[in-house]
Design goal:
Radius of gyration: 13 Å
Mean pLDDT: 97
Order of helices and strands: EEEEEEEEEEE
Helix content: under 10%
Low-confidence stretches: none
Structural class: mainly beta
Length: 120
């Protein structure tokens, strides 16, 4: 059974930092890009950061560029999202996802999500 399990969410004050982790299991993710999406109630789930299988290519949404850093450790089957200088508008549920070949229009696997709340 394929699983993506997020952790590291919580409540933080504006300007603070959090590090999200996504542990994968159940299959090999060779060739899969990994990404972090976020969603607030009533809105679509948006891709905020992604990283290629090799780690050599990354993507960031404009709203988080320069503040968030995505990384992966393939030996540990884990993807990370370091979030710095957090703003109240970063409040959302964050989801880890895997997409073969980086096809983010239809990710192959999703985690259950972890809540991030940034207080002003």
């Amino acid at each position: 059974q394929v699983q993506l399990v997020e952790s590291g969410g919580g409540v933080v004050q504006a300007g603070g930092s959090l590090r999200l982790s996504c542990a994968t299991s159940g299959r090999t993710f060779v060739g899969y890009a990994m990404g972090w999406f976020r969603q607030t109630p009533g809105k679509e789930r948006d891709l905020v950061a992604a990283i290629s299988w090799s780690g050599g290519s990354t993507y960031y949404a404009v709203s988080v560029k320069g503040r968030f850093t995505i990384s992966r450790d393939n030996a540990k089957n884990t993807v990370y999202l370091q979030m710095n200088t957090l703003k109240p508008e970063d409040t959302a549920k964050y989801y880890c996802a895997a997409a073969y070949g980086g096809r983010w229009s239809a990710p192959d696997y999703w985690g259950q999500g972890t809540q991030v709340t940034v207080s002003s």
